[in-house]
Design goal:
- The protein has 308 residues and is of the alpha/beta class.
- The chain has two domains: 134 residues, Aspartate/ornithine carbamoyltransferase (Rossmann fold), CATH 3.40.50.1370; 135 residues, Aspartate/ornithine carbamoyltransferase (Rossmann fold, 3-Layer(aba) Sandwich), CATH 3.40.50.
- The protein is built from twelve helices and nine strands.
- It has a five-stranded parallel sheet with strand order 7-6-5-8-9. The protein has a four-stranded parallel sheet with strand order 2-1-3-4, with helices on both faces.
- The chain starts with 13 loop residues before the first helix and ends with a helix.
- It binds phosphoric acid mono(formamide)ester and norvaline.
Length: 308
């Protein structure tokens, strides 16, 4: 049986991604009002354990994956790479082979995307990308679930990304052709999205437009999306804050979007930098539903990976 890794949105068919989101919606509804630690009916991952390795900090990814395994009737083990021999130079491949003997799946948050790919190549259990320098696919599945919950039909919707063309932006680029939404990206040239991602999206008929101002990208958008100007691992914080300042999401910028436009941010946020408090804490913001949906979307991703 082929091992189902979830390293990026690209390799999955649109129908598989659709099925994951449908299951996430259904599982969320089925446990409405339940205590958060109660196990889902049928305990779909009974007897299964997820290992989680973190090379970088995390609040949402760590707690949502742990609770996901508990709600599915399984368990999880968490370690930072510094707690492990990985932090002392043991190879990614040996680590993958060893963990594959102990657990049923592995989630990794890594500095270098290539390490997650190497880990998956060597592993004999499913591997999930919990954020790398290149992408954050679990985040985007939760974001799309949140938009659907708000009543938006993804096919034909206009999403606008403003600020840094970073890892989270990349996963939106990957998802655009799969779900049929258009993506308008407003970034300065220096922090534009990855060329390879844009080329692949174009080959898949993804509707991606690039702009050099936030105003052009946001014009008429159904959804405005921001993320931190300084991601984990970025070393040019001062320069980024200066160059990206005109891309901050303010109430004035939101006025340029379509009436009733929603605001997304994967969190953690920096009020007064990439977004004003009036926007992220205002009526257009879906950010806490978005954070909660990490849990529901990942439960469906885990079930897809483990074919349960
Ligand atoms: N959005 C997100 O991935 O949050 P954490 O860094 O807290 O996991
Ligand atoms: N772009 C951010 C996302 C954090 C969840 C980072 O990589 O730090």
């Amino acid at each position: 049986m082929t091992i189902r890794h979830f390293l990026d949105i690209w390799p999955l068919e649109s129908a598989e991604l659709r099925a994951i989101l449908d299951q996430a919606h259904a599982m969320k509804k089925a446990r409405l009002g339940w205590p958060k630690g109660k196990i889902d009916t049928g305990a779909p991952l009974d007897g299964h354990t997820l290992a989680m390795i973190f090379e970088k900090s995390s609040t949402r990814t760590r707690f949502s994956f742990d609770m996901a395994m508990r709600q599915l009737g399984g368990s999880s083990i968490t370690a930072t790479s510094n707690d492990m021999q990985l932090g002392r130079g043991e190879t990614v491949e040996d680590t993958a082979k060893v963990l594959s003997r102990f657990v049923d799946a592995v989630m990794i948050r890594a500095n270098d995307h290539a390490d997650v790919e190497a880990f998956a190549d060597a592993a004999s259990v499913p591997v999930i990308n919990g954020l790398t320098d290149r992408s954050h696919p679990c985040q985007i599945m939760a974001d799309l679930m949140t938009l659907e919950e708000s009543g938006l039909t993804l096919k034909g919707a206009r999403l606008a990304w403003v600020g840094d063309g970073n890892n989270v932006c990349a996963s939106f680029i990957h998802a655009a052709p799969k779900f049929g939404f258009s993506l308008a990206i407003g970034t300065p040239k220096r922090y534009a999205p990855d060329e390879d991602d844009l080329e692949l999206a174009a080959e898949l008929q993804g509707r991606i437009e690039l702009f050099e101002t936030a105003e052009e990208a946001v014009a008429g958008a159904d959804v405005v999306i921001a993320d931190t100007f300084v991601s984990m691992g970025d070393v040019d914080a001062e320069r980024r804050l200066e160059i990206l300042d005109p891309y901050a999401v303010t109430e004035e910028l939101m006025q340029l979007a379509a009436g009733g436009a929603k605001f997304l941010h994967c969190l953690p946020a920096h009020r007064g930098e990439e977004v004003d408090a009036e926007v992220i804490d205002g009526p257009a913001s879906l950010v806490f539903d978005e954070a909660e949906n990490r849990l529901h979307a990942q439960k469906a991703i885990l079930r897809w990976c483990l074919q349960k």
